[in-house]
Amino acid sequence: MPRVSVIITTFNRRRFLKEALVSVLAQDYRDREVIVVDDGSTDGSRDEVSGLPVRYAWKENGGISSARNAGLTIARGDYIAFLDVDDLWKRRKLSIQMDEMERTGTPVTYTDEIWIRNGTRLNQRLRHRKFSGEIFERCLPLCIISPSSAVIHRSVFDAVGSFDESLPVCEDYDMWLRITARFPVTFIEKQLIIKRGGHPDQLSRAYDGMDRFRIASIAKILGSGTLSPGQTRKAVGELRTKCRIYAGGAMKRGKNEEGQYYLNLASLYEEKTVPGEMDE
Q1: Inter-residue contact 82 to 160 (CB < 8 Å)
Q2: Segment 203-213 mean pLDDT
């Protein structure tokens, strides 16, 4: 059995697929399998994998979470790595992470990134700063871990479950909340992936008000009963903040009913007694 399963998901991204595959097949870490999950492409993406040493799985279109979950189902490795089809790996990406994970036993590692947008290299903002250890609190404001940078032991998914297929976007944010609530992570301070953005068909461009999906994820994990009292306090605080900001934006756009819903949601959590609040 391969040690690492690499899952590449794609939907009508033929123009990126071959380059992404080459960056994985060129890895100096060899104990791995490469899985391409095609989420219903109609652009001839299958032709790009012809003759390559990869496992190709086509499915009816169901979204990014559905595609990743399909990959998880057929993966045979002890470790799972994802690569978004428009991203690239540097040659030693897997070997550096696997050396760290096998040496220390850490269940999750992720790496630094190079950002390219429309062909221009960008500097990361301070709010995208990366951390190691118990980082649940750091993951509440926004997603700081790129799925393309992570390697995750299979036991982590056994514990936290698969990607939430009800979320059209921010599914990675949702997963990282669930993982970091229960597991420490190790950040490797090397830029081992290249993230390429600015494409007109990026999912993040298809949805306005992304924070409503993050609010849903926070509310879900608060209801799961898996958070410690300290994690609960931080999650409730972030949910209140996001609800107020989102409500204000909705009302400015004339969406008063939607805005009032989020104000009411914030009030609901203000009325609840959060463990430990009375002691502070």
Answers
A1: no
A2: 72
Q: What is the mean pLDDT of residues 205-215?
A: 79
Q: Tell me the two tokens of residue 156.
A: 């982590």
- On whether the CB atoms of residues 80 and 33 are closer than 8 A, the answer is no
The confidence score (pLDDT) of residue 2 equals: 86
**In the chain, what are the domains?**
4-200 (3.90.550.10), 211-272 (no CATH)
Q: What are the residues facing 5 on neighbouring strands?
A: 33, 80
Residue 243 has pLDDT above 60, yes or no: yes
Q: Are 236 and 224 spatial neighbours (Cβ–Cβ below 8 Å)?
A: no
Return the pLDDT at 252: 93
Q: What digits encode the pLDDT tens for the residues 94-133?
A: 999 999 999 999 999 999 999 998 777 877 777 778 999 9
Number of residues in the chain: 280
CA distances from 85 to 125, 139, 229, 270 (A): 24, 24, 38, 41
CA gap 101, 98 in Å, rounded: 5
DSSP letter assigned to residue 185: B
- DSSP per-residue letters across 64-120: HHHHHHHHHHH--SSEEEEEETT-EE-TTHHHHHHHHHHHH--SEEEEEEEEEETTE
What pLDDT, on the 0 to 100 scale, is given for residue 203? 57
